[in-house]
Give the backbone structure.
Amino acid sequence: MRVFDSHIHMTSRTTDDYERMAAAGVRAVVEPAFWLGQPRTNPGSFADYFDALVGWEPFRASQFGIHHHATIALNPKEANDPRCRPVLDLLPRYLDKDGVVAVGEVGYDAMTPEEDEVFAAQLALALEHDLPALVHTPHRDKERGVERSLAVVAESGIDPARVTLDHLNEVTVARARDAGVWLGFSIYPDTKMSPPRMVEILRRYGLERVLVNSAADWGRSDPLLTVYTGEAMLAGGFTDDDVDRVLWRNPVEFYGQSGRLTLPETEAHGEQTGGTTRQATFAGNSILRGGS
Ligand SMILES: [Zn+2]
């Protein structure tokens, strides 16, 4: 099984996680910029974080043969803090970088007017930079959050085929599918979506435009839940090819729209081979080697 985790916050994970992921078949990841728990008080701490997402973290992943990509945005929660608003001015510089495969996570947290404004501004940036967009749907009042997100997406003029609505569930999947966006599902250990529930959704709605991710971060989460979902699919009668479609070819197709995936040619398409890994370069390389 080869796995592309389309949404995982490696910043908050250890090297043990990278090791377990690589051993279980995870060969590529997308790490969206998000809220770090502790509120940030100035744009400078975002710049350092974004630099880590396009520099240090791809280097760290490459040590385990994992291809790391990022999405960059001002997250919905911190969109409410006026001290963070100037982050919008930093974004164009990062959205031009290799390895940045979408604008995200954008969307709603508490659905405030500030979030409206920042969400719309960032969809405009996605259009301007010709990038897909990763939209986080709120954990509270999800139905209304999905409805409002779809309205903002429609209003922005971005092609729905270049948008993923993430953290969907049984209640919101049909509405999102009808709107033509990609359907993201985050699998968690004991809340929200589980592997058996995911298998049921795949049975009912099919495999097209579906992305399954672990969304692992510093909360209770598990970076192998993508793999466990693949195993649950096989146990539930899906084929190896079905699993490869959901866990590899679908994320390659969605994020491939950026033209910036750093996968070896053999893995960028249909073939399932061992593949070779391209080593990410990191400016701090020699310094870090000296220190470890
Ligand atoms: Zn996330």
